[in-house]
Write a structure and sequence with these properties.
CATH class of the largest domain: Alpha Beta
Shape: globular
Largest sheet: 7 strands, mixed
Structural class: alpha/beta
CATH topology of the largest domain: inorganic pyrophosphatase (n-terminal core)
CATH superfamily of the largest domain: inorganic pyrophosphatase (n-terminal core)
Number of domains: 2
Order of helices and strands: HEEHEEHEHEEHHHHHEEHEEHEEHH
Amino acid sequence: MLFSKSAAKIGLVAYILRVLSKNSKDNMMEDTTEGILPFLEPGSGTKIVITTHHKPDADALGSSLALYHYLVKLGKQVTVVSPTDYPMNLHWMPGNDKVVNFEENEELATQLAKDADIIFCLDFNDLKRINRFGFVVHEASAKKIMIDHHRNPTGFDDYRFWTINTSSTCELIYDFIAKNEGEELIDEEIASCIYAGIMADTGSFRFNSTSSNTHRVAAKLIDIGADSAKIHALLLDNFSLTRYRLMGYVLYKKLHIIPELKTALVYLNQEELQRFNIQTGDTEGFVNFGLGIKGIVFSALIIDRTVMVKMSFRSQGSFPCNEFASTHFTGGGHLNAAGGSSMDTLEATVEKFRHVLPQYKDALLSSEE
């Protein structure tokens, strides 16, 4: 065994305490992963694929690579498959060079999924979130295990480690490792990946999803070797010049305020994206600009991505971004952070947004900033 019985007991107790300490306002936790434990026994030749949502962010890639390193330590054959590319400011993560991009190497990614015994699905709850790779995963004979923190999973999974009462999928990965008695296997590489995802999904620990447990986990990761200052710089001080030029343009010309509904709106068309030579990840965080304005409780970012119009929503207080997204824009997410999409034109999507927004006037005006 790679870990002692005493360490196993400590890890299991720590995991139970974490689960019990989750936010009691909405105590939802599902763990049906006992059935996969034989596959995770050290030394068994299990073939594993880990995948996450399209255009992975720090939580998606961080959780995937942290789990990758952990499973490799257990002697598994593991590959991370991303449905698409992802921002350059994530390429520093340990194991990035081992990630297979489905769009760039579809044949290899498809074969890996076909050969897998287990496919871990991280940071998403619907196969539509992994684009065309979703069809491959659906057809694969492997057991599908979902580890996620988003509401309303669609039920594609065979097993799940799921709750909405956590800051991030990375925090869930830490809990999953602890539950499986592997905390002592967390090294600096794993700690750095998990810490990056937690930092990103909590907005550097300022969002209301940040719990006391989040800080306890973060402290343990720092003790193991995660460099908080370095990770912050790699994630948030590592963007292209074109991003900053677009940022100035957005703040000066594209940030629309609807004061009577406490709402901020930014929308960008294809011509604007091309003018600034925007790459994957360059608009990350733009949706938050509006929330920095006094009196604003709801902020929306709408971007024409050619194939479809993508939407990001953020809010403060009690305004339900996820309800707004799921009702009108085939989306979902968390109370204060959600996303959606539209097959209409950018102009039609913006018009629809402006049309349905007044329906939420009472909720917008009553929500505390």
